[in-house]
Amino acid sequence: MSGPLRLVLAIHDHQPVGNFDDVFAAAHADAYLPFLEVLERFPDVAVTLHTSGSLLEWLVEKRPDYVDRVRGLVARGQVEVLGGPFYEPILANIPRRDRIGQVVAYSNFLERTFGQPVRGMWVPERVWEQSFVSDVVEAGIEYTLLDDQHFNAAGLSGDRLLGSYLTEDEGRLLRVLPIDESLRYLIPFSEPHQAIDHLRWIANRRPGALVAFGDDGEKFGVWPNTKEHCYANGWLNHFFELLMQNRDWLQTRPLGEALDETRPLGTCYLPDGTYREMTEWVLEPETQRDLVRLRKLEQQGEDFERLRSFARGGFWRNFRARYPESNAMYARMLEISERVEEAARSGADTTLVDRARTELYRAQCNCTYWHGAFGGLYLPHLRNAVYKHLILADNLLEQTADRPSSWVELSGDDFDLDGRSEVRIAGDRLIAYVDPDVGGHLYELDVRATSHNLLATLDRRPEAYHGVVREKALAVANGQGEESDDEVTLKQPDLHLKLMYDDWPRRSLVDHFLQPGLSLDDFRAGNGRVSDFATGEYESTLRRADGKVEVRMHRRGSVSPYEIEVAKTVRLDADNPGTLLVQYVLSNLPSGLPFHFAVELGFAGLAANAEDRYYYGPEGNRLGQLESSLDLPTAQRVGLVDEWLGLDVSVECDQPGGIWTFPIESISQSEAGFELVHQSCRVVPHWTVQVGDEAEGRWEVRLAIEVDTSIARARELAEAATVGSV
Description:
45% of the residues are buried. This protein folds into three domains: 269 residues, 7-stranded beta/alpha barrel (Alpha-Beta Barrel); 29 residues; 214 residues, Distorted Sandwich (Beta-galactosidase, Chain A, domain 5). Helix 8 packs parallel to helix 10. It has 726 residues and is α+β, with helices and mostly antiparallel strands. Helix content is 33%, strand content 27%. It has 21 helices and 28 strands.
């Protein structure tokens, strides 16, 4: 090759489905628009732009002027628009039919919006598996970009990365171009001339080469301190000026044009992988630390550059193994995907099926299914959004069925992909999933009217960065720093004191036998359990009758030193479809001995620290916001209200006892620092059970979990009346 060095500048702009409207607006104001304004002043700087579908839909509706300006840059050949799967799913996280469907749908949308055929695509999070080639080619894609680490893992490095390659699957060919990792770190965090110097070094070594920068557009204004750096201090303007000053040897090209002008360097097959940081985040904390230590040792040797590609991290799909909450969303998504496909094959109403498919695609947005340097899976509003769209899709699919106005049904299957059978209890108001093999837990409770899963919570578990939180707290305590600085920011004080880890899944209907007289504080700290009922395996039987369905579960277990039997039944009635009924029967209790029995319930997605989200007592009196810890010694009923969601959930017991409430809060990292995140409200009815001889070792209690959505319905009617009067 000879001639100028060709530089592809690929910018990836994305906001996840379910993110707050003001976050979209701030990102537009701080990064997307100012980047475009600088670009417009340099008509000879070409950019390849990928905007995720979730973000572009928002821009089309809320910032149409921005879309018009991009359209103008496309028309004059300065911007090439990249496609990809519509709502930015990880390709490895969705079925093949949905990979193809999402890519085709987004290519069509982009062509209608910008008037340019889509030839290339952005691979979300650059998570790659070789079998994707045939899928994306079938969807009409000719080329893409991937990190140079993918190519390193295939044995390619140095000058062999200064151009594109062909890759193949089932006879279908795709062009792939490496993204230069050095440029990812230089732009925009070094001085502008340092990126130019790096490119000059490449050009001197390999005239006429092709090199790519590809990274998040949020680096140009959204990430901490980058707005001032890129625009107020003029970094981006200066960088573009240097590109113009060096046009004799360095020229920017849209990706498609650059590939049309150059030939592939050869053919390669890329191992499964993603960018370097992601391969670390997917590992368990201790393994993460081992990998980081190994890479630091490598850097001390002369052969670091040659050998580093063989110090590979983990496989992206193991996020589903590491985080059961991710797997739960994934499994639910697969269930909906299969039902959408079945509805389409059956000839069901096309409009309803297409709407359900769109909701499914939205629920596949990747950010919620993993966790790394950003909140992702740890953020309740993103988990809520995934379930919202899955439940909306479920509701639309039910409209294609011939149902009475009130109905219930019961089915057993391996719904969570663990090789064992779970139970789905569904009706026109609620959908519940029960796991007999793990504590007989209720692990999903969907409210159809508000499209909300009341159990979309997250367990507290160790993360590699928790060590940073502890180290920072120690440094602050020793007077060696402040809680917020340029390197580490603790967004709340004393975060290290709230690092706690759960010994059992924080689901609902978690059964506990506790030490007599155990306090709320001790239980909240995870102390005082004297049995294995919380996670033990229950045997189950499904029962159906006219308008009623139930799962009956039972097991015998040791409550040291006694053998106790617990039977629990979860029932849904068509004539009371908003209430889940639960009955417990304890048997084989020794006469005259006190047992402390508790049933732990969880309610998620109900925000804390807000006046319109609160607990209330039997008389409707407010007891405190939803982050409150309450010790109600004689209560039989407690309720939770989230006025913003329009939900009122109450728990009522027919046996007197006590009720505890407390929050589950995790500590996670985000681009702004380390923060405390409210994950769920725990509601724990508990009883001192002591039976006499006449009870024959038997005690029972009934619980009613009632979900009232009348607040949401009233709001809908009021909004409809307002619209009708305009």
